Amino acid sequence: MSIISEILVVVPARGGSKRVKNKNIRLINNKPMIKWTLNEILKVIDKNKIIISTDDEKTKRIVEEVGLEVPFTRPTEISDDFTPTQDVAKHALNWYEKNNSKIKYTLIIYPTAILLKHVDLLHAYNFMKKKSSCSVFFTAGEFSHPIERAFRLDNKKQFKMINPNLYKKRTQDFEKTFYDAGQFYLCKSEIIRDSKPLFNKNSNFIVLKKNRFIDIDNEDDFELAETLLKNQIK
Length: 234
What we know:
The structure is a single chain. The chain is α/β, with parallel strands linked by helices. It has one domain: Spore Coat Polysaccharide Biosynthesis Protein SpsA, Chain A (Alpha-Beta Complex). Helices cover about 30% and strands about 20% of the residues. It contains 6 helices and 10 strands. The protein has a 6-stranded mixed sheet with strand order 4-1-5-9-6-10, with helices on both faces. The protein has a two-stranded antiparallel ribbon with strand order 2-3. A two-stranded antiparallel ribbon has the order 7-8. A hairpin with a 2-residue loop joins strand 2 and strand 3 (about 30). The chain is globular, with a radius of gyration of 19 Å. The protein starts with 6 loop residues before the first strand and ends with a helix.
């Protein structure tokens, strides 16, 4: 298994989490969540190229148990609920390049990506090496039903279709649609340095099966994540 030297990994691991308390370090299958993610990253990335951006002392101690160093404490001004992930990655990239050397690719991975597989990281890297025009490579899921057939409740709590003119169109006649799986983003570093959009005409993605990713936002998500992780381990 090759260790990729051209990539700097940034794991944004802020301490506060309002919906699931201490989410990043909460035990899942008897191990802090972030450890599952870091152990998978370490299969293909050298520990000196992994930065955990955190403002939390507990997270720092757990990261150090994996053999990684936390080189700085994330500044308060980029540690609130409203700070975009890309700003956190830019701060970490600037720190690394100031103290070490320029880096070709920046890989953002969320600490909750417990179903991450290192082979997907290798796939993303190899894809970007072969297709030089690709600026960002990320993971996605496929909508199981046409989003054009979606409906909502208006201000009066009345049913409304988003696209009523498509009501009679057959399901199989719609194009496939996808959504961000929220697992990782492999970027050319200039995308991060220059604060350019991650999703652009030169972005590409790999579609994951539904049992390969989950966005953990509440207790139900946490329980499902635990089940999926157990199945993956088996």
